[in-house]
Design a protein that fits this description.
4 helices, 5-stranded mixed sheet, 10-stranded antiparallel sheet, 415 residues, 57% strand, mainly beta
């Protein structure tokens, strides 16, 4: 057996040891030195959205203005339908917008609560009566909470209206758009002011839109023996003009470092005028008693909201909010439906006029207490008194013996 001995230079190892010792010695010297004096003051601030999200007692998603205006939607229902987890059902061609329903988790009216600045929308509220330009952010809470009403089983969608401050640049915008079937234009103005403990803002917008449409509808029906009952073709054409006005004033009074009172309002007005014509041709089988019909409508819808919010922090870990609001929603509509024969004689004429008025007084509040870093105790209450009055008058006339019906209906309810 042979032993082989090999000498390995130790200089690299010794050098590493020396460097390590030197670094340790320098680090030790820095650690032992007294901290240098500094007069720099670091202040960390959180936005109102971040504070509200931190103090919320349920998971909350917030979509800011930058995310909402990406697609330039002209209707609020279109903007909400783009948000994840939110679906909007109903016909987009409904002149009144009442056919649109906002849903969370697939559940709509009675389970999904829609709010404006934290207050539940009034009865008869049309989602498209608010212009998208008036929305600052959309908050979505996807679970029921103790401080929400029983309508929030599926979740809550809170529409926070825009506000300006004295330090924010005043903004004036004008736009015009033209497509193959649509022409629209609008003006908007935003401003704010501040004087000591008082601050206020307002946002206003005026928008006008005109839609036109054309379509061809083919219908057919068969008998049990396979024969043709009828074959028909309808040429449809129509137009609608929408004029919408929105105003959102707001004023805040700071009573102290932990107490404030906020007054806010919302005024919307929507006017719809439109008409649709249909020419019907029977190519085979049974014919209709009329060859042409025309439906025209004229609808005015107004909403006035006034509310007050009192915020107080009785304790660093506690928060109290009290809200009171008054809502007035009024809609007035008139529709005409005429039928003509092949010889352009009026077969039947109908006139329907309706008026609806909703008045709601609301009182709600919330108290939250942070027990520790992982638990928060929340208590909420919600009450409202609503009065609805509705009238509908229908008049029909025919020179050809068609069945007609005249109605005078009045509804009144208090909830």
């Amino acid at each position: 057996m042979k032993l082989h001995t090999q000498w390995v230079p130790c200089w690299p190892i010794l050098g590493m040891l020396v460097c390590t010792a030197s670094i340790a010695q320098n680090t030790s010297g820095v650690r032992d030195a007294p901290p240098a004096a500094s007069d720099t003051e670091i202040v960390v601030r959180a936005t109102a959205t971040e504070r509200d999200r931190q103090e919320a007692n349920a998971a909350r998603q917030v979509f800011g203005r930058e995310a909402l205006k990406v697609y330039g939607d002209s209707q609020l229902s279109q903007m909400l339908a783009r948000l994840p987890g939110v679906s909007v059902t109903g016909s987009s061609g409904d002149p009144q917008g009442n056919g649109r329903e906002v849903r969370l988790r697939g559940m709509g009216q009675g389970y999904t609560q829609v709010q404006i600045n934290g207050e539940t929308v009034p009865q008869g509220f049309s989602i498209d009566s608010i212009l998208p330009e008036l929305i600052e952010r959309v908050e979505i809470i996807r679970s029921a909470t103790a401080d929400a009403s029983t309508q929030a089983i599926a979740g809550t969608i809170n529409l926070v209206l825009r506000q300006q401050t004295a330090n924010t640049t005043k903004v004036f915008k004008a736009h015009v758009a033209r497509t193959l079937s649509d022409t629209s234009g609008g003006l908007s103005w935003q401003s704010g002011w501040q004087d000591g403990a008082l601050s206020g803002s307002w946002t206003a917008q005026l928008q006008s839109e005109t839609d036109r449409w054309m379509s061809i509808l083919q219908q057919s029906a068969s008998l049990p023996d396979g024969g043709t009952l009828y074959r028909r073709t309808s040429d449809n054409a129509g137009h609608e003009h929408r004029l919408r006005l929105g105003l959102t004033p707001r004023m805040t009074v700071r009573l102290g470092a932990d107490e404030s009172v906020q007054l806010d309002g919302l005024l919307t007005f929507t006017r719809l005028e439109g008409a649709g014509d249909a020419h019907r041709f029977t190519t085979e089988g049974q014919t209709l008693p009329y060859a042409r019909d025309r439906l025209s409508w004229d609808i005015d819808n107004g909403l006035i909201h006034a509310g007050a919010l009192w915020k107080l922090r009785p304790h660093p870990d506690a928060r109290l909010e009290m809200r009171v609001g008054l809502d007035l929603n009024q809609r007035q509509s008139q529709a005409f439906l005429n039928y003509w024969t092949d010889h352009d004689a009026v077969l039947q004429w109908s006139d329907v006029s309706a008026r609806l008025r909703d008045t709601t007084l609301k009182l709600s509040g919330k108290y939250s207490l942070s027990l520790n870093e992982a638990h928060t105790l929340g208590l909420g209450w919600d009450g409202n008194q609503s009065l609805r009055q509705e009238t509908r008058v229908q008049r029909e006339y025919s020179d050809f013996g068609m069945p007609v019906q005249d109605l005078d209906e009045t509804f009144s309810a208090r909830v």
